[in-house]
Amino acid sequence: MKMIHKWQYQGETPKAGRRLVLLQEDELHLALPLVYRLIQPKAILLKPTWFTEKVNNQHSSAAGEIRQREAYFTLEPLLTQLVQQRKVSEDISTPLKEVNQLLNDYFSDLGWRMVRKELSQIKKRQKKSHIELSNDIIFKLRHYMQKHQLDSFDQAIDNLLSEHDATY
Questions:
Q1: Euclidean distance between the first and final Cα of the chain, in Å?
Q2: Neighbours of 141 (CB within 10 A)
Q3: In terms of Cα–Cα distance, which of 49, 71, 112 is closest to 79?
Q4: What is the pLDDT of residue 120?
Q5: Domain identity same for 49 and 82
Q6: 49 and 81 co-located in one domain
Q7: Buried-state track 150-162, b at ≥16 Cβ within 10 A, e below 16
Q8: Are residues 102 and 162 in the same domain?
Q9: I need a surface site. Which of 50, 124, 132, 134 has the fewest CB within 10 A?
Q10: Which is nearest to 51 in space by CA: 28, 75, 83?
């Protein structure tokens, strides 16, 4: 059974909409490069609202810098350990839980929502392919779509392939 790691809100839990979730085992191959990129200190400077006060050092105090470094140097080795254990197919539920707890402490509610949004875009891009077609074929496909009341190129091509398969 797949365990869902739920986000623990730092602010008020939203009354409507889908609850945020933390990293899931099946999305690690897509999520880890994104997470590595976003936990870097440079990213914190670019998008300070994405991070908790513990990590976000807006006031530039020495204590704030130390907390920021501690948070980074606690999270980064656990991410590396998670990657290594995933490569050797070990059970990664424990390190994943630890990483998720640290991510929950690292990102603000807004920040994690944006991370999930970026991850969703990455997942969508993984599912699509791009094929180059000449303009005359595009024109013919659009004409076919209008004639058969189809909404997308996917539907038109699928319909044409179905018609082709039906003749054989």
A1: 43
A2: 16
A3: 71
A4: 93
A5: yes
A6: yes
A7: beeeeebeeeeee
A8: no
A9: 132
A10: 75
